């Protein structure tokens, strides 16, 4: 898998390069400032881009803007955005296009190597990876609505579903059968008035996120 990295922190940038290369991936290019990102992506057309949200010179949303511009120029380009904090607006803007191959993780997730690599591969294959803390904040923001009717198990399934996990991964995380997960998902979609699940794709993640962000 060919990867382009955009990160202004030299230590984290080199750490990402080492992690990815030691995991068998190729780092096609690295960027340390916002203006470098788009030309680098257009030149290398990687399998996935890993971009910091806030980059020089302004340290505002240069990485996100570059990600959105790159996905316009290269439709379907998988992008995994990293951020220091939970910034729901950035997550919503990145996911709002309706296409797969997008992710939003907090930087401390990089230290959890297996989780980070799993999220990266999921995004590269056209899936979605949303940080659990973002999901938690979106859930906490919703009050006095059908979420209150969910059982604890159903709420747990909803959180894992919104992160982009498939049924098998959810089943292993909850230590239940896939059949039980499928049943819980059906109950969640019915109680929230969402269209029936297609079993595990990006479409159901978008449906859940649209509901949580309403």
From TrEMBL:
All residue ranges annotated as the HTH luxR-type domain in the record: 143-214
The Response regulatory domain, residue ranges: 2-122
Claim: Ribosomal protein is one of the keywords in the record: no
InterPro entries: CheY-like_superfamily, Sig_transdc_resp-reg_C-effctor, Sig_transdc_resp-reg_receiver, Tscrpt_reg_LuxR_C, WalR-like
Keyword Phosphoprotein tagged: yes
Residues annotated with 4-aspartylphosphate modification: 52
Annotated keywords: DNA-binding, Phosphoprotein, Transcription, Transcription regulation
Stored SUPFAM superfamilies: C-terminal effector domain of the bipartite response regulators, CheY-like
Pfam entry (one): Response_reg
Alphabetized PANTHER family for the sequence: TRANSCRIPTIONAL REGULATORY PROTEIN NARL-RELATED (PTHR43214:SF24), TWO-COMPONENT RESPONSE REGULATOR (PTHR43214)
Name this protein carries in UniProt: Response regulator transcription factor
